[in-house]
Design a protein that fits this description.
By secondary structure, this protein is of the alpha/beta class. It has one domain: Rossmann fold (3-Layer(aba) Sandwich). 42% of the residues lie in helices and 18% in strands. The protein contains 5 helices and 5 strands. It has helices at residues 15-28, 43-55, 78-87, 106-114, 127-142, and strands at residues 6-11, 35-40, 67-71, 97-101, 119-122. The longest helix has 16 residues, at 127-142.
């Protein structure tokens, strides 16, 4: 991976979601930009990954992810703990966080937005909705990279 590559951190233990996101990224990416999807299975793996990006000199050549996607179906409460942890760290809180869920519960939507999520995406049975999200998200995220 070169320093020009962009990474999306995907926190999801759902293999279908992982595959759909990776496929959508492939179709949404711009020709001259490579978008890498780094998948972690749980909040512990996500925190470990992000801590290494911030503090380990061996990883300084690689940029922080341009966005973090959290599938709140990873485990019951740990997903929201991950969001809280990200937003409490000054080196990370600027990174946009999109929370994805099967739930349409308005209380859950309000809770994740109050915790600092930038967006809430309801994962419907329609693959086209997920592809639409990624196609809208990638160019918006790359706007600050003069691409």
């Amino acid at each position: 991976m070169s320093t020009d590559d962009k990474t999306i951190l995907l926190a999801s233990d759902n293999i279908s979601t992982q595959i759909l996101i990776q496929d959508a990224i492939k179709h949404a990416s711009l020709d001259h930009v490579y978008i890498n999807v780094f998948v972690v299975q749980n909040r512990h793996e996500a925190i470990h990954y992000l801590k290494n990006k911030v503090s380990d000199d061996q990883h300084k050549d690689y940029a922080l992810p341009i966005v973090i996607l959290i599938d709140v179906n990873i485990t019951i409460l740990s997903d929201l703990e991950l969001l809280t942890w990200i937003k409490q760290h000054s080196e990370l809180k600027h990174i946009p966080v999109v929370v994805m869920s099967n739930s349409e519960d308005k209380n859950q939507v309000m809770q994740v937005m109050n915790l600092g999520a930038n967006s809430y995406f309801h994962k419907s049975s329609s693959i086209s909705n997920l592809i639409y999200l990624v196609k809208a998200l990638v160019p918006w995220l790359l706007r600050d990279y003069d691409i």
